[in-house]
């Protein structure tokens, strides 16, 4: 069945094109800094917002028009696989991501859920083999089911911890079956409502315990994807343990997980934590932990996770600068963890939204590449810290000074010259790169 009969494969037509179903900036074969755009960007489409989100919100019912619903939940799940891969092929996206509950109904028992997953992943593998499309990452949804009301790995119920472990095991089995490059943990309920009845250390110890079980099992089955943790400060929990990149890195390092885990960072989660996305990417990069990203944006006027498709060229340019500084994002990728707005309910809007996101990242890549080639920011930073390249600064960096010697130096050189940052000029020039 052709689920999108009015849409052909999306092609690059350039900025003069008036065709809404064409790329204006994303040319997958265009070479930028020695690699093609598709190699740099590694675009992935998420299953949840794309195939299961219905357009409902706390104040309104479902509005999305979708052609894949069948007579039963499993009929719908089978249809979604066909529709999803048709969308991926027409977009030219080479990767995808999913939660276990996205692809298969939970049924009436854990056993039935796993059987449903087996059947649907058989279909997914068949489509992967036919198309060459690859699994960027999968994960277990351990936050939606009522059993996870008080957490999954951080739960106070040992039986719930066991169920979470079973879902992770199944997720890793599926990752091996589908050749997944990464495996993600997002702790939506791994936090607390109040500290009055919470043993924080106990809960974090148990989260680390489950992560170590996952690493051990992956080694046992001979399939070890890159493990990723996705930070978020709140919502749905009042406070989530993986608050931001720095907090999550501290957790990884405390429990000795740094050789196995990196971060999957999301733009909207960064703003909820009170950071720019650029900040979160930098924190991960300088600690060797930038693994993959979820590409979206929030609304600065709204205090929740709106998951809009990324269209802010300035922010995406700085995102791509960090990825280039990281030496690329592989084996991670750029996953559109984004959903169409409630007013954009036609099935065609799924294509228009992804085209907008892919074009924006193509522009961000070219802008960041020009910044890198010109060396504007590198020269600026080098000049700003130049005092540490000679004299007393170089001596400090060589660990040749101590408090006594520096005190003696300071008493003789207390008229230190402090230079202006000229930051308004810097931002003005940076705007010239936003094409």
UniProtKB/TrEMBL annotation:
Mg(2+) 2 binds at residues 266, 269, 305, 307. It is found in: Cytoplasm. NCBIfam families: PRK05474.1, xylose_isom_A. This is Xylose isomerase. InterPro entries: Xyl_isomerase-like_sf, Xylose_isom_bac, Xylose_isomerase. It is an enzyme of class 5 (isomerase). SUPFAM superfamilies: Xylose isomerase-like. The active site is at 99, 102. Keywords: Carbohydrate metabolism, Cytoplasm, Isomerase, Magnesium, Metal-binding, Xylose metabolism. The lineage of its organism: Bacteria, Bacillati, Bacillota, Bacilli, Bacillales. Its cofactor is Mg(2+). Homotetramer. It catalyses: alpha-D-xylose = alpha-D-xylulofuranose. It comes from Listeria floridensis FSL S10-1187. The gene is xylA. Its EC number is 5.3.1.5. Mg(2+) 1 binds at residues 230, 266, 294, 337. It comes from the Bacteria.
